[in-house]
Design a protein that fits this description.
alpha+beta, elongated, 5-stranded antiparallel sheet
């Protein structure tokens, strides 16, 4: 399962140098990972682990950020989600890969505890 988000970088999202706060980007990545995991499990999910994330390209005020999340593996109650982040200059359309992160999301049952991820259902 996959999910895609598109965000705009507003002044309140930036530091004094006009670059996107790293924490804001991680929050967007976490949201994208969560959406992909919910689509795969059809259950509420929580973040269990965020693997090392390197910020290779700065993101500036006014640019667009596109996040692509994909479930790459499934355990009993957990899913590993790969999130790719691209920055786009809205004037030119040029895109650059900013970072790739991996998130482990855990499916929750009605009791708020980890629950098995159901088998993937094939499309009809």
């Amino acid at each position: 399962m996959e999910a895609t988000l598109l965000e705009s970088v507003f002044p309140q999202d930036t530091n004094p140098q006009g670059n996107l706060f790293g924490g804001q980007l991680v929050a967007w990545m976490d949201r994208a990972a969560g959406y992909a995991a919910i689509r795969r499990s059809r259950r509420p999910v929580v973040t269990a682990t965020i693997e090392n994330i390197s910020f290779d390209v700065p993101i500036h005020k006014g640019e667009m950020v596109e996040l692509h999340a994909k479930v790459v593996s499934v355990g009993r109650s957990s899913m590993r989600v790969r999130v790719e982040v691209f920055v786009e200059d809205p004037a030119s359309g040029d895109q650059k890969l900013v970072t790739v992160g991996h998130f482990v999301m855990v499916a929750l049952g009605p009791d708020g505890r980890p629950t098995p991820v159901p088998p993937e259902v094939e499309a009809a």
